[in-house]
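Quick start: read one record
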Amino acid sequence: MEKKVLDKGYIKLLKGEKEDNILKVASICYGRKIETFDEDKKKFLLKKLMFEHAGNPTSSFEFVNFLFEVKCPIFVARQWFRHRIGSYQEISRRYVKDNLEFFIPEDLNEKLKEEYIKLCENCKSFYEKLVKSGVRKEVARGILPVSLYTVFYWQVNLRSLINFLKVRLDKHAQKEIREYAKTILELVEPYCPIVISLLKEKLEIE
């Protein structure tokens, strides 16, 4: 499943697991292996596990995993990578020199937008000139701005994902990464409807 974000970005959910895994794993704490739960019991238990540790999810949430492919501007990726509880694999400009695309802010006036695009294109042209002249790609990339789009894989468990969403859905988070967080919320909800509903309630998201 893929959703567009910003002007040229996207998020693809490549693999997801259901919230039932949380209850299956948690049940072993009581010497049981319970495979199925009725809906009322499931909601009660998930809510308890969601907020049991000082208002944070228990370790059983770590047994629900997601794999995303993300295309976003480098400045967004650098904020993203601060969330270190997860696995990342990013495209390397040491090996790849094509597909240079830049994020263009939508709230610029026409004159500033033209200058912004021109500057990005000048950086791209000079980068290509450097590479063509024999400068190593890993050195030439230094001229490229952080508005350049990058692509990476992100594998993360639900416990860490909830932490990411709490931080990046906050009104003080930068607008661009907040758009990605909103999209992740939509992609994950079909797999974890109760957990996401509880999170939305906590964060006061409709």
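The radius of gyration is 21 Å.
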